[in-house]
Protein backbone atom coordinates (compact mmCIF):
# COMPACT_ATOMS: atom_id res chain seq x y z
CA UNK A 1 0.00 0.00 0.00
CA UNK A 2 2.71 2.49 1.00
CA UNK A 3 4.77 1.66 -2.09
CA UNK A 4 1.77 2.31 -4.33
CA UNK A 5 1.23 5.68 -2.66
CA UNK A 6 4.87 6.66 -3.14
CA UNK A 7 4.69 5.71 -6.81
CA UNK A 8 1.54 7.83 -7.09
CA UNK A 9 3.46 10.85 -5.77
CA UNK A 10 6.12 10.38 -8.45
CA UNK A 11 3.52 9.76 -11.17
CA UNK A 12 1.74 12.96 -10.19
CA UNK A 13 4.84 14.95 -11.08
CA UNK A 14 4.95 13.26 -14.50
CA UNK A 15 1.26 13.98 -15.09
CA UNK A 16 1.77 17.66 -14.35
CA UNK A 17 4.36 17.97 -17.10
CA UNK A 18 2.94 15.51 -19.65
CA UNK A 19 -0.79 15.90 -19.06
CA UNK A 20 -1.11 12.13 -18.82
CA UNK A 21 -4.15 10.24 -17.56
CA UNK A 22 -3.29 7.31 -15.29
CA UNK A 23 -6.76 6.53 -13.91
CA UNK A 24 -9.55 5.23 -16.14
CA UNK A 25 -12.19 6.49 -13.73
CA UNK A 26 -10.88 10.05 -14.05
CA UNK A 27 -10.55 9.67 -17.82
CA UNK A 28 -14.14 8.45 -18.20
CA UNK A 29 -15.32 11.35 -16.05
CA UNK A 30 -13.42 13.84 -18.21
CA UNK A 31 -15.09 12.37 -21.29
CA UNK A 32 -18.56 12.60 -19.73
CA UNK A 33 -17.88 16.26 -18.90
CA UNK A 34 -16.88 16.89 -22.51
CA UNK A 35 -13.26 17.76 -21.71
CA UNK A 36 -11.91 14.99 -23.94
CA UNK A 37 -13.37 13.22 -26.98
CA UNK A 38 -14.48 9.59 -27.09
CA UNK A 39 -11.51 8.79 -29.35
CA UNK A 40 -9.14 10.28 -26.80
CA UNK A 41 -10.88 8.28 -24.08
CA UNK A 42 -10.32 5.02 -25.95
CA UNK A 43 -6.67 5.89 -26.66
CA UNK A 44 -5.99 6.81 -23.04
CA UNK A 45 -7.68 3.71 -21.60
CA UNK A 46 -5.84 1.42 -24.02
CA UNK A 47 -2.56 3.06 -23.01
CA UNK A 48 -3.39 2.76 -19.32
CA UNK A 49 -4.37 -0.88 -19.59
CA UNK A 50 -1.35 -1.79 -21.71
CA UNK A 51 1.04 -0.02 -19.36
CA UNK A 52 -0.49 -1.65 -16.29
CA UNK A 53 -0.41 -5.10 -17.90
CA UNK A 54 3.25 -4.70 -18.86
CA UNK A 55 4.09 -3.43 -15.39
CA UNK A 56 2.55 -6.55 -13.85
CA UNK A 57 4.51 -8.72 -16.27
CA UNK A 58 7.71 -6.90 -15.34
CA UNK A 59 7.14 -7.39 -11.61
CA UNK A 60 6.36 -11.06 -12.23
CA UNK A 61 9.59 -11.51 -14.20
CA UNK A 62 11.68 -9.70 -11.61
CA UNK A 63 10.38 -11.70 -8.65
CA UNK A 64 9.48 -14.96 -10.37
CA UNK A 65 11.89 -17.05 -8.32
CA UNK A 66 10.76 -15.65 -4.99
CA UNK A 67 7.06 -15.93 -5.81
CA UNK A 68 7.42 -19.51 -6.99
CA UNK A 69 9.57 -20.49 -3.99
CA UNK A 70 6.97 -19.06 -1.61
CA UNK A 71 4.06 -21.02 -2.99
CA UNK A 72 2.56 -21.86 -6.36
CA UNK A 73 -0.17 -19.71 -7.83
CA UNK A 74 -2.87 -19.10 -5.21
CA UNK A 75 -5.37 -16.27 -5.52
CA UNK A 76 -6.84 -16.13 -2.02
CA UNK A 77 -5.97 -17.29 1.47
CA UNK A 78 -3.17 -16.61 3.98
CA UNK A 79 -0.49 -17.70 1.51
CA UNK A 80 -1.97 -16.04 -1.57
CA UNK A 81 0.33 -14.30 -4.02
CA UNK A 82 -2.18 -12.90 -6.54
CA UNK A 83 -2.73 -9.88 -4.32
CA UNK A 84 0.79 -8.78 -5.19
CA UNK A 85 -0.61 -7.68 -8.54
CA UNK A 86 -4.21 -6.60 -7.90
CA UNK A 87 -6.55 -5.91 -5.01
CA UNK A 88 -8.68 -8.31 -2.97
CA UNK A 89 -10.99 -7.43 -0.07
CA UNK A 90 -10.26 -8.37 3.52
CA UNK A 91 -11.85 -11.61 4.63
CA UNK A 92 -14.34 -9.88 6.96
CA UNK A 93 -15.54 -7.32 4.37
CA UNK A 94 -18.78 -7.92 2.46
CA UNK A 95 -19.25 -7.08 -1.22
CA UNK A 96 -21.52 -4.21 -0.23
CA UNK A 97 -18.93 -2.88 2.18
CA UNK A 98 -16.18 -3.29 -0.41
CA UNK A 99 -18.20 -1.43 -3.04
CA UNK A 100 -18.96 1.41 -0.63
CA UNK A 101 -15.29 1.63 0.34
CA UNK A 102 -14.09 1.90 -3.27
CA UNK A 103 -16.91 4.29 -4.16
CA UNK A 104 -16.24 6.59 -1.20
CA UNK A 105 -12.46 6.52 -1.65
CA UNK A 106 -12.80 7.57 -5.28
CA UNK A 107 -15.23 10.35 -4.34
CA UNK A 108 -12.55 11.63 -1.96
CA UNK A 109 -9.94 11.32 -4.71
CA UNK A 110 -11.83 13.33 -7.34
CA UNK A 111 -12.95 15.94 -4.80
CA UNK A 112 -9.36 16.45 -3.72
CA UNK A 113 -8.12 16.69 -7.30
CA UNK A 114 -10.80 19.24 -8.18
CA UNK A 115 -10.01 21.35 -5.10
CA UNK A 116 -6.29 21.29 -5.84
CA UNK A 117 -6.73 22.34 -9.48
CA UNK A 118 -9.66 24.77 -9.17
CA UNK A 119 -8.09 28.15 -9.90
CA UNK A 120 -11.44 29.91 -9.37
CA UNK A 121 -11.63 28.69 -5.79
CA UNK A 122 -8.22 29.52 -4.37
CA UNK A 123 -6.54 26.51 -5.97
CA UNK A 124 -3.11 25.25 -5.00
CA UNK A 125 0.07 26.89 -6.27
CA UNK A 126 1.06 25.48 -9.66
CA UNK A 127 4.27 23.87 -8.52
CA UNK A 128 2.61 22.26 -5.48
CA UNK A 129 -0.22 20.53 -7.36
CA UNK A 130 1.64 17.28 -8.21
CA UNK A 131 2.92 16.80 -4.66
CA UNK A 132 -0.50 17.55 -3.15
CA UNK A 133 -2.14 15.05 -5.50
CA UNK A 134 0.34 12.39 -4.45
CA UNK A 135 -0.17 13.19 -0.78
CA UNK A 136 -3.91 12.95 -1.39
CA UNK A 137 -3.54 9.39 -2.73
CA UNK A 138 -1.27 8.53 0.20
CA UNK A 139 -3.84 9.84 2.66
CA UNK A 140 -6.65 7.86 1.01
CA UNK A 141 -4.54 4.73 1.17
CA UNK A 142 -3.64 5.16 4.83
CA UNK A 143 -7.16 6.11 5.86
CA UNK A 144 -9.32 3.91 3.64
CA UNK A 145 -7.10 1.15 2.28
CA UNK A 146 -7.64 -1.50 4.95
CA UNK A 147 -10.88 -2.94 3.56
CA UNK A 148 -9.99 -3.40 -0.10
CA UNK A 149 -6.45 -2.20 -0.74
CA UNK A 150 -7.90 0.98 -2.31
CA UNK A 151 -7.86 0.24 -6.01
CA UNK A 152 -9.63 3.58 -6.84
CA UNK A 153 -8.46 2.99 -10.41
CA UNK A 154 -9.71 0.35 -12.87
CA UNK A 155 -6.51 0.74 -14.89
CA UNK A 156 -4.30 -0.37 -12.04
CA UNK A 157 -6.48 -3.33 -11.01
CA UNK A 158 -8.05 -5.06 -14.02
CA UNK A 159 -5.02 -5.45 -16.36
CA UNK A 160 -2.80 -7.04 -13.65
CA UNK A 161 -5.72 -9.32 -12.75
CA UNK A 162 -5.94 -10.41 -16.39
CA UNK A 163 -2.19 -11.00 -16.36
CA UNK A 164 -2.37 -13.23 -13.28
CA UNK A 165 -5.15 -15.24 -14.93
CA UNK A 166 -2.89 -15.81 -17.94
CA UNK A 167 0.30 -16.32 -15.94
CA UNK A 168 -0.95 -19.33 -13.98
CA UNK A 169 -3.34 -18.20 -11.26
CA UNK A 170 -6.25 -19.07 -13.53
CA UNK A 171 -9.84 -17.89 -13.43
CA UNK A 172 -9.85 -17.98 -9.63
CA UNK A 173 -8.65 -14.37 -9.73
CA UNK A 174 -12.10 -13.48 -11.10
CA UNK A 175 -14.21 -15.88 -9.02
CA UNK A 176 -12.45 -15.30 -5.70
CA UNK A 177 -14.24 -13.45 -2.91
CA UNK A 178 -17.67 -13.82 -4.51
CA UNK A 179 -16.45 -12.51 -7.89
CA UNK A 180 -15.07 -9.33 -6.36
CA UNK A 181 -13.17 -8.33 -9.52
CA UNK A 182 -15.92 -6.09 -10.99
CA UNK A 183 -16.06 -3.79 -7.97
CA UNK A 184 -12.63 -2.14 -8.52
CA UNK A 185 -13.77 -1.49 -12.10
CA UNK A 186 -17.24 -0.03 -11.58
CA UNK A 187 -17.13 1.57 -8.11
CA UNK A 188 -14.28 4.01 -8.94
CA UNK A 189 -16.01 5.16 -12.14
CA UNK A 190 -19.32 5.74 -10.35
CA UNK A 191 -17.52 7.37 -7.43
CA UNK A 192 -15.65 9.72 -9.73
CA UNK A 193 -18.85 10.77 -11.51
CA UNK A 194 -20.67 11.30 -8.22
CA UNK A 195 -17.75 13.28 -6.81
CA UNK A 196 -17.76 15.65 -9.78
CA UNK A 197 -21.52 16.14 -9.43
CA UNK A 198 -21.11 16.84 -5.72
CA UNK A 199 -18.32 19.35 -6.36
CA UNK A 200 -20.30 21.19 -9.01
CA UNK A 201 -23.41 21.43 -6.84
CA UNK A 202 -21.60 22.48 -3.67
CA UNK A 203 -18.70 24.59 -4.98
CA UNK A 204 -18.25 25.17 -8.71
CA UNK A 205 -21.74 26.50 -9.42
CA UNK A 206 -21.21 29.04 -6.64
CA UNK A 207 -17.88 30.34 -7.95
CA UNK A 208 -17.92 33.83 -9.39
CA UNK A 209 -17.36 34.17 -13.14
CA UNK A 210 -13.95 35.47 -14.14
CA UNK A 211 -15.30 38.83 -15.33
CA UNK A 212 -16.83 39.41 -11.88
CA UNK A 213 -13.91 38.14 -9.86
CA UNK A 214 -11.28 40.30 -11.59
CA UNK A 215 -12.75 43.72 -10.57
CA UNK A 216 -12.98 42.53 -6.98
CA UNK A 217 -9.31 41.51 -7.06
CA UNK A 218 -8.36 44.91 -8.53
CA UNK A 219 -10.41 46.72 -5.93
CA UNK A 220 -8.85 44.68 -3.14
CA UNK A 221 -5.41 45.52 -4.54
CA UNK A 222 -6.21 49.23 -4.61
CA UNK A 223 -7.47 49.16 -1.03
CA UNK A 224 -4.32 47.38 0.08
CA UNK A 225 -2.09 49.91 -1.68
CA UNK A 226 -3.94 52.79 0.00
CA UNK A 227 -3.30 51.29 3.42
Give a written overview of the molecule.
The protein has 227 residues and is mostly helical. It has one domain (2-204): Glycerol uptake facilitator protein. Helices cover 70% and strands 0% of the residues. It has ten helices and no strands. Helix 5 packs across helix 9 (183-202).
Key traits:
transmembrane; 227 residues; Glycerol uptake facilitator protein; water channel activity; disordered C terminus; single chain; mainly alpha
The number of distinct β-strands equals: 0
Residue windows where pLDDT falls under 50 for at least 5 positions: 1-18, 220-227
| Radius of gyration over all CA atoms, rounded | 20 Å
The total count of helices amounts to: 10
Shape designation: globular
Beta-strand content estimate: under 5%
How do the helices and strands follow one another from N- to C-terminus?
HHHHHHHHHH
Mean pLDDT across all amino acids: 82
Sketch the major β-sheet: none
Compute the number of structural domains.
Answer: 1
**CATH uppermost class:** Mainly Alpha
- Cα distance spanning the termini: 52 Å
User: What's the helical proportion of residues?
Assistant: 55-70%
The CATH architecture is Up-down Bundle
Structural class: mainly alpha
The CATH H-level homologous superfamily: Glycerol uptake facilitator protein
CATH level 3 topology: Glycerol uptake facilitator protein
Give a quick precis of the structure.
It is a multi-pass membrane protein. The protein has helices at 2-18, 24-32, 38-62, 64-70, 95-117, 129-144, 154-169, 172-179, 183-202, 210-226.
Amino acid sequence: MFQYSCISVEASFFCDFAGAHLNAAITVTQCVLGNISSKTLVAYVIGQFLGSFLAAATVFALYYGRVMSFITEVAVGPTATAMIFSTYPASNVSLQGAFFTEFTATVMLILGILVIHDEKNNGAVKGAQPMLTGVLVLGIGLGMGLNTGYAINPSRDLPPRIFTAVAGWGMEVFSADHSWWWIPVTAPILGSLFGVLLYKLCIEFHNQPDHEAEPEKDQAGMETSQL
